[in-house]
């Protein structure tokens, strides 16, 4: 049994560690204290525990002490072989010694840990564990199993210390111990590692075969060979190997050379350590092994539940594990024979179970399902096979053991049978579930696929039932084919039918959904069409007044239509144009029908209104004309300035519109009506303007005619005055009076309203004309005066000539003075009488002046004649009076003839232009003023006479210039 006390087996030389016994027999407190002592300092640090186990007296404690030495050396900074201090003969930590007697007792952990960083730099507390040697005569298989199992459970690395080779029994024991450990582990721990144990190192001591190199390399070769499962490997061995591989996370092997005789053959109790005693080869591989085992790369920490265990975890874990190995309750294992029998039984049972498992597995692997009877038959068959195998292999052990194991085997078989049954049932239900899932998946796929494909269709195709049917059939065919291909058992038909049924449901569901969708779509389109039509109607109604007023019917309809279709397009976006086309057309038709009806109605109304308008427009026009006539009457057909004319037109227009408004108030709302009235207004206004213009022309003509009349009258008056041979101042007075009279008459002839400028213009022209006439008259008067003086001079000359003739005639012969005075008086009287008789000289003043002058001349001639008479008296014989008379008469005749010829010639040339001028004027007067022709002619005659007089006077003057006496 394991040691029950804490033994400080060996105190290292001066070192501060101790080997602490871990025993299940300890009180909990003791164990706790020991564990605290061990792991107190590394409660939070991952822990690695290196354990060694194996047959007694094989150098386990020795090599663990060397590892301890190595670790301490490393801790002190020593490397390679330096750690083996040659002068130090102490090798301690764990108790070791030479001799045959077993030494180490129980499971011991060295209290001092060594902190080593692993490959990731994490600190790991390394502990070393030594165990009691196995297989000595005092240690039972149970104890061996406990030692092995406990140390393997606690450690992270288990070194299976073997001598010279790995024997089959080593493996069998290994299986036994690990099996035992696993069984206890299962009992006690809740932690589940993938592997039961972590690292197993086969450390082969004293490796004798030189052909295989020491160390890891040889160890690996050795291990492969041992653990290899060949075709000829015994079934039991195979299972051991598999078992080992399956139980340990990592299995490795290291071949150690022999340490040398001095080490191997030391005396009993000798634990003196001399480095030189070890063969260099041994030292070399020892060093290599220590370096590798504790290298950061190979450092292996303890795992609990797959997690790194720290000191605290180890306290808990070991505390929980130790009670499993309580000697009073721990399961016992018999002797080796018993164990062998047990092992055999165990193996046979395991083989039978494996066989059983395989048999049932074959059936399980089959896709078929089995009924109750079928399973019973199969079970019997397998049982027979198992019994056969059991009887042929269960060679060790007594009958009781055999019977017991046979029962166990059969029990296990029954258990497996029921497991199979359960599995079969589960398989059936799983299969059913799978079928159900497959059916569901297929149905889902069918539904999704059908829906997706249908969703990709346009709404028209989507609503076409035939397309859905065709698609549904195609997809159904596809999934049934797939289903048929996937399943190959008796259930298939049933679930295929179920699939068909569900697919049918699915199809009907989608079909009815699409039908509903179609119905909804149609309904919503109908509703939309209706709403859009309402939009159209509302817009038309809202603009009713506008429509009537402005004749915007088409524009309004277009706008309303645009609004309606805009709404239609926006709200039917979700549908294709192919689907909405029908409704679009329907809306169009509705709108068109309404539009036509409205248009017809509107046309009728319009026509009615037109008829009414034209019935009333005549009255309006009449009202206009009446007003116009009235206004014209009021203005006495006088000329109107543009403003007045416009006002008149507007008044008339207002009258017309008033009339229209009374009879047909809606007339303004119709553009045609107002425009036709506008045309009338325009014509009327043009006529107004034309008439006004004619009035203006008439007035202007009247102005002109009046001016001409005034000029004529002026001329007439002035001609009278001129003929009367008035003097200049009188003439000026008369001119002013005649001018005033003419202007007064002109002024009175027309009031000149609205044509003041024209009147002024014509008045000015009149003044200018009269002024010209006046100037001419002044000239005429001046000429007349001149002519009168000439005439008077001529008269005076004639009278003087008469005097002279009388004198000459009576004084042909010289007379006495008396006679002379008589003759003179008589001649003078005759001359003056002649002078006074001349009535054509109107200028009395001038006539008197000339008379006095005549008298003066007569007196001059009297004195001359007196003198001549006297002279005659003296020269009586000098001149014949008759001859003189004759000569004078001849000259007179010649001059008169010349005068007459000259008169004729001059008169002809001067009168003609005046005559034509007169004719033109008369014609003009006759045409323009339509006055009494006869009166005009008379006036013209007077004028012509006057002109003839002027011509005569002018001619007289010319005659005098050329020396012709008139
Ligand atoms: N042949 C041989 N002997 C060794 C070796 N290592 C140590 N020894 C010797 O074996 C003897 C037993 O050493 P221990 O270390 O006490 O052996 P143990 O396996 O711990 O023995 P128990 O504690 O009784 O199980 C000592 O005399 C050692 O010198 C080795 O590798 N080969
Ligand atoms: Mg020992």
TrEMBL record:
Origin superkingdom: Eukaryota
Keywords in alphabetical order: GTP-binding, Nucleotide-binding
Domain GB1/RHD3-type G: residue ranges: 44-298
GO MF terms held by the record: GTP binding; GTPase activity
Pfam families: GBP
PROSITE patterns (UniProt xref): G_GB1_RHD3 (PS51715)
SUPFAM superfamilies listed in its UniProt record: P-loop containing nucleoside triphosphate hydrolases
Record-linked InterPro entries: G_GB1_RHD3_dom, Guanylate-bd_N, P-loop_NTPase
Protein family per UniProt: Belongs to the TRAFAC class dynamin-like GTPase superfamily. GB1/RHD3 GTPase family.
Designated name of the protein: Atlastin-2
């Amino acid at each position: 049994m394991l040691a029950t006390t804490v033994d400080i087996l060996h105190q290292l030389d001066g070192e501060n560690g101790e080997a602490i016994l871990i025993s299940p027999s300890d009180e909990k407190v003791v164990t706790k204290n020991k564990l605290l002592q061990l792991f107190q300092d590394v409660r939070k640090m991952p822990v690695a525990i290196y354990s060694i186990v194996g047959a007694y007296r094989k150098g386990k404690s020795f090599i663990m002490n060397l590892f301890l030495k190595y670790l301490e050396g490393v801790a002190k900074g020593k490397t390679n072989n330096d750690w083996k201090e040659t002068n130090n003969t102490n090798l301690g930590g764990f108790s070791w010694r030479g001799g045959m007697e077993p030494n180490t007792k129980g499971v011991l952990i060295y209290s001092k840990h060594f902190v080593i960083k692993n490959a990731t730099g994490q600190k790991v507390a390394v502990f070393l564990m030594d165990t009691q040697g196995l297989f000595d005569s005092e240690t039972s298989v149970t104890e061996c199993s406990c030692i092995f199992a406990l140390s393997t459970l606690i450690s992270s690395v288990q070194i299976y210390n073997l001598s010279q080779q790995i024997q089959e029994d080593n493996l069998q024991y290994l299986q036994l111990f690990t099996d035992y450990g696993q069984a206890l582990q299962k009992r006690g721990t809740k932690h589940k590692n993938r592997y039961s144990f972590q690292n197993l190192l086969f450390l082969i001591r004293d490796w004798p075969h030189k052909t295989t190199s020491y160390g890891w390399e040889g160890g690996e070769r050795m291990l492969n060979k041992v653990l290899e499962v060949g075709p000829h490997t015994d079934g039991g061995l195979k299972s051991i190997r598999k078992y080992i591989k399956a139980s340990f996370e990592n299995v490795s092997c290291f071949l150690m050379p022999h340490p040398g005789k001095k080490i191997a053959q030391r005396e009993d109790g000798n634990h003196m350590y001399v480095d030189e005693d070890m063969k260099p080869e041994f030292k070399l591989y020892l060093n290599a092994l220590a370096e590798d085992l504790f290298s950061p790369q190979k450092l292996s920490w303890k795992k609990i539940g797959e997690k790194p265990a720290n000191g605290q975890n180890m306290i808990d874990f070991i505390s929980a594990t130790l009670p499993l190995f309580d000697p009073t309750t721990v399961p016992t294992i018999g002797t080796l024979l018993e164990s062998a029998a047990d092992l055999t039984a165990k193996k046979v049972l395991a083989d039978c179970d494996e066989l059983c498992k395989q048999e049932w597995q074959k059936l399980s692997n089959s896709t078929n399902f089995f009924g109750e009877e079928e399973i019973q038959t199969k079970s019997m068959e397998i049982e027979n096979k198992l019994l056969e195998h059991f009887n042929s292999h269960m060679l060790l052990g007594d009958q009781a053991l055999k019977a017991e194991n046979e029962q166990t085997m059969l029990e296990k078989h029954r258990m497996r049978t029921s497991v199979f049954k359960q599995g079969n049932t589960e398989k059936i239900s799983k299969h059913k579930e799978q079928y159900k899932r497959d059916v569901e998946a297929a149905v889902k796929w069918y539904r999704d696929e059908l829906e997706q494909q249908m969703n990709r269709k346009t709404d028209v195709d989507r609503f076409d039932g035939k397309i859905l049917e065709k698609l549904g059939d195609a997809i159904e065919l596809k999934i049934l084919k797939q289903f048929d291909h996937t399943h190959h058992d008796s259930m298939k038909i049933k679930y295929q039918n179920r699939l068909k049924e569900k697919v049918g449901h699915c199809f009907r569901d989608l079909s009815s959904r699409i039908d509903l969708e179609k119905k909804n779509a149609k309904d919503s389109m109908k509703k939309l069409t209706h709403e859009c039509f309402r939009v159209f109607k509302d817009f038309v109604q809202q603009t009713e007044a506008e429509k009537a007023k402005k004749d915007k019917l088409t524009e309004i309809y277009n706008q309303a239509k645009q609004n309606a279709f805009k709404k239609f397009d926006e709200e039917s976006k979700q549908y294709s144009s192919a689907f909405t086309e029908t409704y679009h057309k329907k809306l169009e038709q509705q709108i068109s029908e309404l539009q036509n009806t409205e248009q017809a109605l509107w046309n009728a109304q319009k026509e009615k209104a037109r008829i009414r308008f034209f019935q009333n427009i005549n009255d309006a026009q009449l009202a206009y004309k009446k007003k116009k006539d009235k206004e014209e009457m009021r203005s006495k057909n006088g000329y109107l300035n543009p403003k007045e004319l416009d006002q008149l037109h507007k008044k008339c227009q207002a009258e017309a519109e008033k009339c229209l408004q009374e009879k047909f108030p809606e007339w303004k709302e119709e553009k045609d009506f107002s425009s036709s009235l506008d045309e009338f207004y325009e014509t009327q206004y043009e006529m107004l303007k034309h008439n006004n213009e004619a009035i203006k022309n008439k007035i202007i003509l009247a102005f002109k005619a009046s001016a001409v009349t005034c000029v004529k009258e002026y001329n007439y008056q002035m001609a009278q005055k001129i003929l009367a041979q008035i003097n200049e101042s009188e003439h000026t007075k008369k001119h002013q009076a005649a001018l005033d009279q003419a202007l007064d008459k002109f002024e009175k002839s027309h009031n000149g309203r609205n044509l003041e400028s024209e009147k002024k213009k014509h008045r000015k022209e009149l003044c200018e004309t009269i002024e010209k006439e006046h100037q001419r008259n002044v000239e005429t008067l001046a000429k007349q005066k001149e002519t009168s003086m000439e005439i008077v001079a001529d008269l005076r000359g004639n009278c003087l000539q008469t005097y002279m003739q009388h004198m000459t005639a009576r004084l042909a012969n010289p007379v006495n003075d008396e006679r002379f005075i008589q003759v003179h008086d008589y001649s003078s009287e005759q001359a003056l009488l002649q002078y006074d008789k001349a009535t054509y000289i109107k200028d009395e003043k001038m006539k008197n002046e000339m008379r006095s002058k005549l008298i003066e001349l007569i007196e001059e001639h009297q004195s001359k004649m007196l003198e001549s008479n006297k002279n005659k008296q003296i020269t009586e014989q000098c001149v014949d009076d008759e001859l003189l008379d004759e000569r004078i008469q001849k000259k007179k005749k010649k001059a008169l003839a010349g005068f007459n010829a000259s008169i004729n010639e001059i008169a002809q040339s001067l009168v003609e232009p005046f005559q034509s001028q007169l004719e033109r004027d008369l014609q003009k007067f006759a045409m323009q003023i339509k006055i009494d022709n006869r009166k005009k002619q008379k006036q013209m005659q007077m004028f012509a006479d006057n002109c003839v007089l002027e011509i005569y006077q002018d001619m007289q003057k010319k005659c005098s210039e050329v020396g012709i006496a008139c």
